[in-house]
Structures are given as structure tokens and as C-alpha cells.
Amino acid sequence: MSKQPEEKDPKPQTDSKLPVEEVQAEDVLISAKDYQKLQEELKKAQQQAAENFDGWQRERADFSNYKKRIDREQQNRRQTIAAELIKKYLEVLDDIQRALKNRPTEGDGTKWSAGIELVERKLTNILESEGVTRIPAEKEMFDPTRHEAISSEDSSDHESGEIIEVLQQGYILDNRVLRPALVRVAR
User: Per the structure, how many domains does the chain have?
Assistant: First the structure.
């Protein structure tokens, strides 16, 4: 024979010897002095809570600003490092482009120059995929923020301040000049 668990009465049982009394707010009597003291303590506690809340909000805003500033600094640091690395590759690209200007047109050298041209295109495509773009210079007006004048010459074919020739290509990365274009400018 199995024992069945006893069902519990949903109402709690009270000891019949102890009287159950409900205390309501209007039944509690305190002296005016105690009431005044409690009011002052309540006011102090409310002031302290308000000060703590204000302090918490200020600290939260300070932390948010700190986090944003750190993120900006890290982004700038990454951009600076990337720019310095890309500048080194630009020097290699310049060397390749100079070699292609003097490429042989006959014999075994033509195959070699075709291979070098392929390397130049790959390097240019990689730089473009990283956001590096050439600074427009040929037949543009001289802009000292993007161009560096090597010489100025009289030219009847160009306006004053117009770029005659690009001696070294300039590049930008994310609206930041990596290297200004070296140019000859018309007077």
C-alpha cells in the first residue's frame, strides 16, 4: 500500500492563541518631535539620492565621452600607420613606373616589361582597393594643399597657375594627402 502525500491547505494556519491584528497607518501614533526627525531624515535621504543620481549621470556621460575619444584616437592611429605603410609602397610604384617609361621595345626585354607592367597594375589595384587615389594634377590649376610646385615657367599654352607637367604623382587616402603631386606650374 502506497502512501499518498497529504494535501496542504492553501490558507496558512495560525496559532489560535495569538491574536492577529492589522496595523494601519492611521493607527500608529508618534510624537511631533519624532515626526519632525523622520521628515528631516527623509529629506536628507532624498537629497543624497538626488546627488548620487546626478553624480552617476555625470560619470556615465564622462565615460561615454572618454570611450568616443579613445575610439577616435585609435582610428587616427590606424589611419596614420596605414598612411606610413602605403607611402613606402608608393615609392616602389614610382620606381616601377620609371622603369616602364624606359622599357625596351624589341627583343627579350619586351616580355620582361610586360611582366613589370602587370606588377604595376596589381599594385595600383591593391592601393585603390585600400582607398588610395591619385590627385588630379595634369592641366589642373595649382592647389598648394594638393600640389607641390618644383618650378614655375612661362608658357603661352597654359594659364597662369595651371599645371604644365606632373613630375611625381600625388596620392590621397580618405581625403588625407599622403603625398602631394610634384608639378611644374605656368606663370
Answer: 2
Domain holding 84, by residue range, is 38-130
- Going by C-alpha positions, the residue among 89, 77, 76, 72 that lies closest to residue 171 is 89
121 and 142 in a single domain? The answer is: no
Q: 183 in helix, strand or coil? A: strand
Is the pLDDT at 8 greater than 70, yes or no?
no
* Continuous segment of H or E residues that includes residue 173: strand 171-173
pLDDT in tens, 33-42: 999 999 999 9
Closest CA to 119 of 139, 99, 102: 99
Task: Please indicate, yes or no, if residue 110 is contained in any of the structural domains.
Answer: yes
% residues pLDDT > 90 (the chain): 60
Q: Do 119 and 139 fall into the same domain? A: no
